C-alpha cells in the first residue's frame, strides 16, 4: 500500500492509504525520498490558486526527488533504480512553442504534477518517463527536491546572460533569491549584491556567495543605476519597479517573483530612456531543468544549505503552517515520506 496527503477541497486534508499506483504506457513510478512545500502548495490548500490551475481532489507536491521503482509499457527498464527528478509541467511536446524548445510556454493545455495530476506528498508518484532528469548515484535526494525552484532560477540566469566581471544584484533572499545567488556567483561577477530587508536572510545570502547586502532603503540611496544585471526574486508589490531603477542604462532586468494584482508598474519613461532589457520568467523549460540538474551535479548548487525543517507525511499540517509565515528563519520545508 501507499500513503498520500489528499486535499479533497480547500482547507481540508487527510492522510489516505491506497494501492501502490501502477505506471501506464510511457510512465514510471518513483519512490519519493523528499518533497518540498512552497507557497503554491499553500495556495492550493487555501483555495487561492487561480481556477483552471488546480483540480480537486488533489495530492499536492511538485518539488520532489526520488528513485525509479517501476516502469510502464514502452518505458526503458534500465531506469529502474535510478535517482531522478521530473519536470512538473506536462508539456505536449508537439505545439509550436514546444517544438521551439519553449516547453514552459506550451499551448497544448495545462497539466502539472501536484496541481492537476497526483503529486509527491506521497510514498509514490507516477510521471511520464520523458519528463525525467536523472541524477548521479551519489546525489542527496533531500537537496535534489529543490531542483524545481532551481530550474526556475536557471531560466532566470539564462535569460539574464551574466558575464564575468559584471555588477549583479539579486532582489530578495528567499529560496529563489538564494539559489540565484549560488548560480550567479559561479559566473565570476565583480560584485554580487543582495537587496533584502531581513538581517537573517541577508547573512545567509553572504554565506551563499553574495559580496554585500543592502536593505531596500539603502539600495535606493546608494545603488541607483549601478548594476549590469538585476534578478528580481521577491515578488513584492514594488520590486518590479524598484529593480528597474537599480539597473544601469542599457542594463538587464529579469523578473522571477510571483506578483499579485495591484503591484506597482514599471515606469515606461524610465524604461524607454534607460533602454533597459526586461525579461520575465514563469516556470522552466526542459533545457532549464537540464541546466539546473547539471549545476547540481557539478556542485555549483548547494540546495541542502537552504533546508530548515523536515517532517513526515503525518505532520503535513505543521509543515504547511510554516510556509508563508514570514519567519526569516524558515527556509525550505520538506516532507519525508
Task: Note down, in words, how this protein is organized.
With 337 residues, this protein is of the alpha/beta class. The chain folds into 2 domains: 2-145 and 302-335, Medium-chain alcohol dehydrogenases, catalytic domain (Quinone Oxidoreductase, Chain A, domain 1, Alpha-Beta Complex), CATH 3.90.180.10; 153-280, 3-Layer(aba) Sandwich (Rossmann fold), CATH 3.40.50. Helices cover 27% and strands 25% of the residues. It has 11 helices and 15 strands. The protein has helices at 39-46, 96-99, 141-144, 147-160, 175-185, 199-208, 216-222, 239-246, 268-274, 286-297, 316-322; strands at 2-6, 14-18, 27-37, 63-71, 83-86, 124-128, 132-134, 167-171, 191-195, 212-214, 227-232, 247-255, 277-280, 307-311, 332-335. Helix 4 (147-160) crosses helix 5 (175-185) and helix 4 packs across helix 10. The chain is globular.
Amino acid at each position: 500500500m501507499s500513503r498520500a496527503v489528499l486535499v479533497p477541497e480547500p482547507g481540508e486534508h487527510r492522510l489516505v492509504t491506497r494501492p501502490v499506483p501502477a505506471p501506464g504506457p510511457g510512465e514510471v513510478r518513483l519512490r519519493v525520498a523528499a518533497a518540498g512545500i512552497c507557497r503554491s502548495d499553500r495556495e492550493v490548500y487555501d483555495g487561492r490558486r487561480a481556477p483552471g490551475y488546480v483540480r480537486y481532489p488533489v495530492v499536492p507536491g511538485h518539488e520532489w526527488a526520488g528513485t525509479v521503482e517501476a516502469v510502464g509499457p514502452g518505458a526503458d527498464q534500465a531506469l529502474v533504480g535510478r535517482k531522478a527528478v521530473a519536470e512538473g509541467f506536462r508539456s505536449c511536446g508537439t505545439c509550436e512553442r514546444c517544438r521551439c524548445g519553449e516547453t514552459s510556454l506550451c499551448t497544448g493545455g495545462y497539466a502539472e504534477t501536484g496541481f492537476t495530476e497526483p503529486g509527491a506528498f506521497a510514498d509514490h508518484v507516477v510521471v511520464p518517463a520523458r519528463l525525467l532528469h536523472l541524477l548521479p548515484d551519489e546525489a542527496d535526494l533531500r537537496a535534489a527536491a529543490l531542483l524545481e525552484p532551481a530550474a526556475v532560477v536557471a531560466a532566470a540566469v539564462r535569460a539574464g546572460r551574466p558575464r564575468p566581471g559584471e555588477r549583479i544584484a539579486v532582489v530578495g533572499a528567499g529560496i529563489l533569491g538564494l539559489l540565484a545567488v549560488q548560480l550567479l556567483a559561479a559566473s565570476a561577477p565583480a560584485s554580487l549584491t543582495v537587496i533584502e530587508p531581513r538581517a537573517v536572510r541577508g547573512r545567509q545570502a553572504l554565506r551563499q556567495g553574495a559580496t554585500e547586502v543592502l536593505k531596500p532603503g539603502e539600495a535606493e540611496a546608494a545603488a541607483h543605476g549601478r548594476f549590469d544585471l538585476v534578478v528580481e526574486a521577491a515578488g513584492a508589490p514594488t520590486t518590479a519597479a524598484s529593480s528597474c531603477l537599480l539597473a544601469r542604462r542599457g542594463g538587464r532586468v529579469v523578473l522571477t517573483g510571483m506578483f499579485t494584482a495591484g503591484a506597482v508598474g514599471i515606469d515606461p519613461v524610465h524604461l524607454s530612456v534607460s533602454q533597459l532589457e526586461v525579461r520575465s520568467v514563469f516556470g522552466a523549460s526542459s533545457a532549464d531543468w537540464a541546466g539546473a540538474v547539471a549545476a547540481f551535479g557539478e556542485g555549483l548548487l548547494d540546495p541542502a544549505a537552504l533546508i530548515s525543517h523536515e517532517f513526515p507525511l503525518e505532520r503535513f499540517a505543521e509543515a504547511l503552517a510554516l510556509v508563508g509565515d514570514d519567519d526569516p528563519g524558515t527556509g525550505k520545508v520538506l516532507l519525508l515520506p
